[in-house]
């Protein structure tokens, strides 16, 4: 036993777990932003939405998180070695809090876009810094279990949003979610900086204090010396990003990691989680979409525990292949169901609680479990094995940037394709991409179980040689790298699957549509302003631009989906209520109160002095106001409920067409 372990009994790893839990609480705070869209989108698209959004705007709300996440690893790379792991991780709470405040006070879609970008920055930053912090504070005995916390905390965040979101208001959910980054900041503020960073900055005394607290032992000299040696070796090896991109073996390892990254995201996992309630709302089941999402989150949380016990027993390749096969089966099940549901009318029963309604939900659960046992976790294990220690941070940043870009593309296209062509098309694309990923894994990904770093580097060197095979006595390696020429065509297939036209829809300028080809305003959106009882944005020219929706088969060039904007007539109001004017005319008309209210002070004064022309003028004004002949003096219209007793005067002019009627 080493000196580090001497004298450490029960609870010896307590402080390491405390620091790990406090650090990974940043993932609960950040991943909650990803889970938020599932309960929030149905509210934003519903009849009582606080902010009306179109399907296209909804897809931007979901996908902009990934755009913001691209900047997280960049910020991490610039500042994590300059200011430290702890301050940068604490900083990740700031954009998260700011984003939730934007959601709380949002009055427009633009504010939601800003919130999602801020959420993405905090999300990417937390995901980049947390693994570094955990790796540098954990001793060898607990590094595996603290690493699992990354995935477990992320799934807890999804469970939290899925469980709370459907049962509280839109803004209440934002306030509740805001408490997560605030709580993380308070908890993590008291945690120490990592010993590795402090040694790299030349502060050996502070590094010793940090390590002593983490290990709960005073016998740290040997471990501190090893850390110091590793830090010195890393400094001598130069720029890690340059070595990652220019060294032959590292470039080949990077190809493997990028392949796994693409394979993970092209299964559609983030789109399915982000739109889970929207997808489940199409199923005729006795459980609500919100309840089904909670079940999904619970299954997902339980599934991420499995790789902990399997990855070092069965190996990386078997887990990846089994995971891909199960994911393929689950996605294909959903694709077949939604194809029958959306393209036929006599095969599936639309009755609530029909037994076949459980089929797609079972397919999604199979996909989630299968994805969790391999594709969700094994790539991170391989990431830690195929790169030298001093460039793992650079490789992790590149991995995170590429992943965020792919996630954005997948999540954005999911809504566009589902609205334009059908949900089944999206699932068939995910199924095809998963199948291609399985083929690539079989031919390209090596088995790294039980291999030393030197042996793995030797295998990377052999990847450039066609038809190479590893001797049977060298371990479990197979002739996996014998067909590198397959990489280019298979990646091309992945891209083509996303670009192949999926329907025969026509793209036109929807402002030229004729009556019967569209509905305006779109009845699914809340476009009536409750304050004015007119279309939102009604101008003094009595026009408002509103969202409309075209019939099936038409794609608008303006938005690339079925929605478009069109000017519609409205009545500009300026705060004058019809019921107030009428009540004043009936009860106080003899004193001219109605005319004063409507902006006619001269007539109001005249009525006041003559008791409403001896009540005759009062009677006339009651009739004129009741028939809405007399309105506010500024030319605005009365505020009357949109579907209330509004009188519209139709006058004949040179442009009026009289329809002849025999029985006039």
From TrEMBL:
TM segments? Answer: 17-38, 58-80, 87-105, 172-191, 254-275, 287-311, 318-338, 358-382, 394-417, 423-445, 575-593, 605-626
Name the domain of life this protein comes from: Eukaryota
InterPro entries reported in the protein's UniProt record? MFS_dom, MFS_sugar_transport-like, MFS_trans_sf, MFS_Trehalose_Transporter, Sugar/inositol_transpt, Sugar_transporter_CS, TM2
Q: Name one GO molecular function term.
A: trehalose transmembrane transporter activity
- Answer whether the UniProt record assigns the keyword Phosphoprotein to this protein: no
| GO cellular component terms, A-Z | plasma membrane
Q: Which UniProt keywords apply?
A: Cell membrane, Glycoprotein, Membrane, Sugar transport, Transmembrane, Transmembrane helix, Transport
| Membrane-related topology note | Multi-pass membrane protein
Question: Cellular location of this protein?
Answer: Cell membrane
Question: Transmembrane: is it a keyword of this entry?
Answer: yes
User: Start and end of every Major facilitator superfamily (MFS) profile domain?
Assistant: 1-449
* Protein family membership: Belongs to the major facilitator superfamily. Sugar transporter (TC 2.A.1.1) family. Trehalose transporter subfamily.
Protein role: High-capacity facilitative transporter for trehalose. Does not transport maltose, sucrose or lactose. Mediates the bidirectional transfer of trehalose. Responsible for the transport of trehalose synthesized in the fat body and the incorporation of trehalose into other tissues that require a carbon source, thereby regulating trehalose levels in the hemolymph.
Put simply, this protein is called Facilitated trehalose transporter Tret1
UniProt source species:
Anopheles minimus
């Amino acid at each position: 036993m080493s000196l580090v372990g001497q004298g450490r009994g029960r609870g010896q790893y307590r402080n390491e777990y405390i620091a790990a839990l406090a650090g990974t609480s940043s993932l609960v705070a950040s991943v909650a932003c990803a889970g938020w869209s599932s309960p929030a989108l149905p509210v934003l698209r519903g009849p009582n939405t606080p902010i009306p959004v179109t399907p296209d705007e909804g897809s931007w709300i979901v996908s902009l998180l990934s755009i913001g996440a691209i900047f997280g690893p960049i910020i991490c790379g610039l500042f994590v070695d300059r200011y430290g792991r702890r301050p940068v991780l604490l900083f990740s709470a700031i954009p998260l809090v700011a984003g939730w405040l934007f959601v709380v006070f949002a009055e427009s879609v633009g504010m939601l876009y800003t919130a999602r970008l801020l959420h993405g920055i905090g999300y990417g930053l937390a995901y980049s810094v947390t693994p570094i912090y955990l790796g540098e504070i954990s001793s060898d005995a607990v590094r595996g279990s603290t690493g699992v916390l990354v995935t477990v905390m992320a799934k807890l965040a999804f469970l939290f949003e899925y469980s709370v979101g459907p049962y509280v208001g839109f803004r209440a959910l934002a306030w509740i979610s805001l408490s997560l980054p605030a709580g993380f900041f308070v908890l993590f503020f008291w945690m120490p900086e990592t010993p590795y960073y402090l040694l790299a900055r030349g502060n050996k005394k502070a590094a010793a204090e940090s390590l002593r607290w983490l290990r709960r032992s005073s016998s740290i000299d040997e471990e501190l010396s090893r850390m110091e040696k590793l830090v010195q070796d890393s400094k001598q090896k130069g720029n890690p990003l340059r070595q990652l991109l220019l060294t032959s073996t590292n470039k080949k390892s990077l190809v493997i990691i990028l392949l796994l990254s693409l394979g993970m995201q092209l299964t559609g996992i983030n789109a399915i989680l982000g739109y889970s309630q929207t997808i489940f709302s199409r199923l005729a089941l006795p459980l609500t979409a919100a309840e089904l999402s909670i079940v999904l989150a619970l299954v997902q949380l339980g599934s991420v525990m499995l790789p902990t016990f399997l990855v070092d027993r069965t190996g990386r390749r078997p887990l990846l292949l089994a995971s891909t096969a199960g994911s393929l089966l689950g996605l294909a099940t959903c694709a077949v169901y939604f194809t029958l549901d959306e393209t036929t009318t006599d095969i599936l029963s639309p009755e609530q609680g029909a037994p076949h309604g459980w089929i797609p939900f079972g397919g999604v659960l199979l996909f989630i479990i299968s994805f969790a046992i391999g594709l969700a976790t094994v790539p991170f294990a391989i990431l830690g094995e195929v790169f030298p220690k001093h460039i793992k941070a650079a490789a992790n940043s590149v991995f995170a940037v590429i992943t965020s870009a792919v996630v954005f593309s997948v999540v954005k296209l999911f809504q566009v394709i589902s609205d334009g062509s059908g949900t089944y098309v999206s699932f068939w694309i995910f199924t095809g991409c998963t199948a291609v990923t399985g083929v690539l894994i079989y031919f390209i990904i090596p088995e790294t179980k039980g291999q030393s770093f030197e042996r793995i580097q030797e295998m990377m060197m052999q990847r450039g040689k066609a038809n190479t095979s590893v001797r049977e006595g060298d371990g479990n390696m197979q002739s996996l790298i014998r067909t590198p020429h397959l990489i280019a065509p298979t990646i091309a297939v992945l891209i083509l699957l996303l670009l192949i036209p999926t329907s025969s829809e026509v793209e036109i300028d929807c402002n030229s549509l004729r009556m019967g080809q569209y509905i305006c305003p779109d009845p699914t959106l809340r476009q009536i302003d409750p304050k004015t009882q007119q279309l939102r944005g009604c101008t003094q020219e009595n026009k408002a631009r509103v969202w409309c929706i075209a019939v099936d088969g038409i794609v608008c060039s303006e938005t690339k989906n079925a929605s478009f904007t069109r000017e519609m007539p409205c009545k500009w109001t300026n705060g004058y209520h019809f019921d107030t004017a009428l009540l004043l005319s009936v009860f106080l008309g003899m004193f001219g109160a109605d005319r004063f209210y409507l902006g006619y002070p001269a007539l109001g004064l005249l009525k006041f002095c003559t008791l409403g022309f001896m009540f005759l003028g009062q009677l006339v004004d009651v009739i004129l106001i009741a028939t809405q002949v007399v309105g506010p003096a500024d030319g605005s219209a009365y505020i009357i409920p949109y579907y209330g007793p509004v009188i519209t005067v139709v006058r004949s002019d040179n442009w009026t067409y009289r329809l002849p009627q025999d029985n006039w």
